[in-house]
Structure formats: C-alpha cells, structure tokens
User: What shape does this take?
Amino acid sequence: MAEVIKAKEPFRFHTRLHLTELTGLRAINLTQLVELIKEVPGACIYHHTHRFLQQHQYLSPEPPNDFAYWVTEILGEDELGERLSSIDTIKYSTIRSLRDRIIEAVEDYLKDNPLAKLKFAREGDEFHFIKSVSFILPTDYIAGDLREFADILKKVTIDSIYFHIFESRLRLEKSDNDFSNWIRTSMGNTYLAERISKLDPYTHTLEGLRGNLVDMVEKELLR
Amino acid sequence: MTKLEEYIPIVGQSVIDDLRLLAKRLEGKVVQHINSTAVGGGVAEILTRAVPLLNEMGLNTKWDVIKGGEQFFEVTKKFHNALHGRSEAITQRDFDIFAEASEANSRIMDTYGDIVFVHDPQPVSLINKKSGNKWLWRCHIDVSNPNQKVWKFLMDFIIKYDSAVFSAPSFSQRLPIRQFLISPSIDPLSDKNKELPQELIDSVLRKYEIKKDKPVITQISRFDRLKDPVGVIQAYLQVKKYIDCQLILAGGSASDDPEGLQVLEEVREKAKQDKDIHILLLPQNDTEVNALQRASDVIIQKSLKEGFGLTVSEALWKAKPVVASNVGGIPLQIKHKYSGLLCHSIDGAAFAIKQLLNSPAYAKRLGENGRENIRNNFLLTRHLKEYMLLFLSLYHTEDVIQL
Assistant: This one.
C-alpha cells in the first residue's frame, strides 16, 4: 500500500439542512407553468429539480424532477414529461442555465403541440411553486488525508454528501463538486479528482453515490 | 418520557446529531408555544411529544395555553369549520365574542418568549402584544378554500406575524409575510405506531371476532361523511365479486357528534348485507388501532377532504400498501405507483385494491417504499428539525444561509 499523503489543507465536511418556503404561486396549465418558471426565484427552480432526489432518495437512481412529474401525471403529457426528466442536469453549472433549458423544452413542445395549451389541472392538482431555503453548517468531521476522507465518507449524513456533490456546485456556482476540488488542489491528485468529476450523481441513489465515492477513494489508496 | 436517543435505532445517529447541532445554534433563546388546549387534538398531541425532546436538546421550550369560555370555543369551532370551506353563518356577535375573549387573554398572557409560536386561530390576536420579539403563526387547518369573511378577519392579525406555517402547499395563500411548509408527523415510539408482538395483534382480532382466514381491507377514521365510509363499502363490494376478502371500518366514538351517529347508522345499514364487514366503534385506544392496521393486507383512506391524513402515514409506517384519495396532504405522502396508489373515485379505489390483493409482490414493494418515505419525511424527528430551522429563519432572510 502506498504511503498516505497528507493534504495541504484539511477538508471540513459541512451539512445542509433545508426548509421549504411557500410562495402562494400556482399554475394550472403549461402556459402558466412556463411563465412562472421564468419569474420565480432561482431557489424555486432548485427546489423543483432536486427535491425528489432527497425526499425519495431510496427509490430510483433517476429521480424525476417535479416539473416532469406534474406534466406527466397531472396533464398526461408524457412526451414533454420525458423531455423534462431527461434534461442532463449535471451539464448545467448555474440555476440560470438550467432554468433556461427547462423553459426552452416547454416552449418548443408548445410550439409543436399547441393543443397541449388546452389541458388544465383539476382543482387540487395545481402546480405549487415552492422555494428551498438551505442552512449550511460545519460538522466536526475533518479529513487530513484520503484514508480519513474515505472513513468519514462512510459515516457522514447523506445531507453532507448531497451538499458537497450537488448543492455546492450548482447553488454556490462552483465549477466542480467540493470533493474533486479538494482532491485536486489540496491532495494534488488530478486522476482521482477527474474520476469523481465524471460521475453523474443524478443517475445514482444517494446511498449508491456514497458507495461509489468510497470505492473510488479506497481503490486509489491501494494504487 | 421518551428520550431522544431512543430514536437512534429508527432514524440513525446522524439525524440525532443534526438535531443537536441545530439546538446549539439556538442556545439562549426561549421558545414559547401558545395554543388553546393542553389535551386532545393533534396540536396538543404533537406538543406533548415535542416540547420535552426540544428541552432535552437544550432549547428552552415553554408551552402556555389560553383561556376561553364555552361561547368563545363555540365561535372558534365555527371559524374552524368555515376555514375548512364549510358553509357557516358567522355573525358580528361571533366576531365580538372572539374579540372580548382575545382581549381578556391578552391581559393575562405573558408573551415572554424570544420566539412566540402561536398555533391555530384561537390565540391569533395575541400578536397585538408583539414588542421586539419574533412571532410565528402555525395554521393546522386546510385553508385552501376558506370562508372569505373569516379569513379576512384573521388576516388583519396574520400579517403582523414574522412568518406563517402551513401543512400542505395547496393551503398557502398570497401573503405579505414569509410562509413555510412544515408537514405534521407521527411518533414511531407512540402506542399507535410502535412495533407490537404478534400475540397482541391476534388478541385484538379475537376480541373483535375477526378471523384471519381471508385478506383484510381496513379504513381507520371517524364516522364522518368526509371520510366516505359508505364509498369504502361500495368499493369493497366491487372487489368482493372477484376476491373473497373482508372489510374493517374502525373509528373513534361519535357520541358527542349527532351527525357522526347518523353516519354510523347509515354505515351499519349498508354493512348488514355482508357478514364480512366489521364495523368497530373503538374507544380511544391507540394500541388497538395499531394492531388492526398491522393485521391488514390493504389500508384505505378514501376521504373526500382531508387536512393532512396522518392515518396514511401510520399505515405506511407499518409498510402496508395503501389506497387513498388524492386530497389534502395525502399526495405529499403517496407518490402514485411509487409508495401507494391514489384514487379519485369508488371505481378507482376498487380497481386499486384488486391490483394490490392480486399482486402481493407489488403491494409489498409499495408498502416498503411508503415506509421509507415516512422514515425520511414524516417522523417526529423531521418535524423537530424543521421547527428549529424555522426558528433560525427568523434571524436570516437569504435563501442560502451559512451558519
């Protein structure tokens, strides 16, 4: 086994807890939906594209976003639902660009299928716009090398992994996830940093993601 | 009294660590809950469980109750029904009675909390005592379609609060203050939800003369038209044409509710035609409810209207496949075909029950997914976490807060 290399700067794990804020805004058809998607705060777009991931993390490796779910289940527009759920979220580094992509998908669909504008949700099935308010807290877990990093990854909350992989990159507009950033800059290990960057976290369950990360780091320790 | 560490085997150490981390951030604050009753009803039930746990974490949490005479509570009951969208004749006299009792409470109630957390409309006017501290109003009622006269009357008070809290997105209104979504929760360690030995479940079935020789379909609710017990019987009869099964309709005593007694009689009349329908008028006995839910193969909640529908959470927590109406807070708990089946009609309910009884592996998967959904989102520990985040939100206005 190779000698364990110490990091220039240790990695402090943070956790992220969220509170759901209501806006009172609701849509009953696709036209209203797309207009409101243009107006609502970025925290709403974030909520509706990531909520499923956390609330139903155990269910499926490809969580549908709320827009796709509503369009499919309530309006019965399966094709648009598929277009929305297959948006490659990992490609977008800002909420703004993700929002633009969602708007484009709905508007293109409405151009090709003008009759879809005539579909309305029944009372009680409206789309309610909701915001995600995030509280980021430092935990007591600090890794000074890859061994410690792997051990902590096994026991931190899923919220902590979620924060460093998803939220930090997209919501705080960093170019990469926190783990790859630290491994690259403080550990000087570009190979492992790139491997983690290439992982599409949206196609794993959160526990599956944890397992993959631990596996990658442990394999690296054996190299 | 239940201790926080007893929840670790259910939710994991890390969830409890997070709660303690949050409580530390609120050190030194006094949180004062105010509601209208110390016993009975969902609010008192949750505060009874939550207040000791919050104190155990080091968050100084108090609970005070307002006073009110018979007339005042008659008026607030009318308000309650009107906010739920029922047609009620509200007079100026009612508003006057509310104002007089509120004035009296205002004189005697010391609102000493750094954070004053007011539950439901009865104590809402205490906000007029606000002086430099933070105030929250928690609405436990379905106000998706409220009587406008009552809502406007309450609105004069509500807009003076720092934030409001609702149980479902459909209850939110356009308000000039911040509003948050916090769902109610169930306590996995309470008598209604804790694990039970098989012998105890069997003894409850024996007591009510229910044989486990055919699949059991159950709805637990008050005998109330909004819970559609007659619709449940109709759905069951449709299923029965194809699958030999039995139905339990069990609910609390309706002796103080004349309409409830009438509904019970109608249900008994409908049930006469089938010896496999068991109508159980249960006393307040949480353990028996728990046992009946655990003895069931499919659980129904075919409500026409529902505040949140915690009976659905209770059933899912027991990993039972559930068929429930797509109303109130139920779609928050069930994602159709992932963690249960949603329905909109008697025919839909019957079809869903048949699917579940004929496909036990599918039913099992839905039940297990449902249990995980409840574990992640609808247990008391999540409720405590969100209450503490709510308190912290009073001191921060950003969408991303670094603590």
